[in-house]
User: Fold this.
Amino acid sequence: MSESSVHTSLAPERATPATGEPTGPVRHDHPTPVLGALGLFTVLLGAALPLIDFFIVNVALPTIDRDLDAGPAMLELVVAGYGLAYAVLLVLGGRLGDMVGRRRLFLIGMAAFGITSLACGLAPDAWTLVGARVAQGAAAALMLPQVLATIQAATRGPRRARAMSLYGATAGLSMVAGQILGGVLVAAAPMSSVFGESAGWRSVFLVNVPVAVVGLILAARAVPETRSDRPAPVDVPGTLLLALSLVTLLAPLTEGRAAGWPLWTWVSLALFPFSAYAFYRVERRADRLGRVPLVPPSLLRLESLRRGLALVVPFSIGFGGFMFVIAVALQQGLRLGPAAAGLSLAPMALAFFGASLAGPRLVRRYGTRVVTAGGLIQAVGIVVLALTAHVAWQGLSPWGLLPGVAIAGLGQGLQLPVLFRIVLSDVPPEKAGVGGGVMTTTQQAALALGVATLGTLFLALAPGLGMRDALVVTLLVQLAAVALTVGLSLRLPRTVA
Assistant:
């Protein structure tokens, strides 16, 4: 991003009516605030933290198990507790930001995220860690929706396109970087006299604390305040039914295998379609009566949002499942250490970042066919990974994985940032918080669903087939999800607003 495209003053900036370019500092509550470069960096930092922490524990789970004697079911809760609280409360977080101010909610969420990260890092036992992870997910749900809403409300034109591309790049990079950072921290953390051998896994949470402090300082200086002109009250029935729908689906799928599929998991899955239908009916009735539901059906009638979300779901299911499965396969199958397992994904992160930076220019020239091309490239990467695992499993090193993960990362980087732009391209600014909440909830729920479904498939196949063949089968299932995204991408509008 050039100096001419985004000003770098520490304060938010005022846009001129003619050009939309910033001319000088404004108050945080100015009716037409503009997000400057430092403000954009700050909100993107807030977007990165929750996604990093969803994946950072994947490579730390074995050391958590040894140190806290957690067991498989408890380890699943460490992952699922965060993901469930995060997914359930995201739309509500967006609505609250519309009501009380997005900058204010961002600051509250960032502070809460730092405090709950400290609680995770100091947890004396497994149950305390699970409780702190649930609270950490709730804090993330307050913070993350404000990022997209602020970008939507405080940028316009080419500046918004660049900001959305950077948001997409940040989201994808954070998911890969979380696993890389987790592996490095677990391996490199010093064995302190206070924490002993647990210093490694505790560091993956404690590292958030100074980052949150820096984020709070920057947000207070550089993020403009925005809110909806017509904020709606909280939709309590809709919020409760959405929470019930997500919990009845994700909790049994995540915990079922480790718990031995007890009766409650089947009862919960049976309740899911009824709770989802009840949520739809309550929201439609509220809309018909002139109220403002949690997820307005009118928002879902936007073609760009509806078709974009249809691609975000299979993409995120495959991405979330892959990141979990590859962490287990590399550590338990190939016996790589946490640092080597994490750094094996570095080529994916670099390729994703490069593709994300090229995305805006490619979209201007080729439109949404960039998403189709990205899906095809990702499919090639997955096929290369599957063939590599099948042919050269014994003695397979991170260097052997490089071609497959790099090609897959390149394809993913051409898809995700563009999909985010498509989903939010037609959402009106006054509904920016709700639109951002709907998109991030869909993405987060799909990521958790990917971990639950592809992770369960892999772990169920591994005892009988072995790690190699279980990984190959899981990659082929992910390939089917990629094929679905390629097919759906052909139905996208050719241009992106």
In short: The chain has a mean pLDDT of 81. The chain has 18 helices and three strands. The longest strand covers residues 22-25. The beta strands are 13-15, 22-25, 33-34.
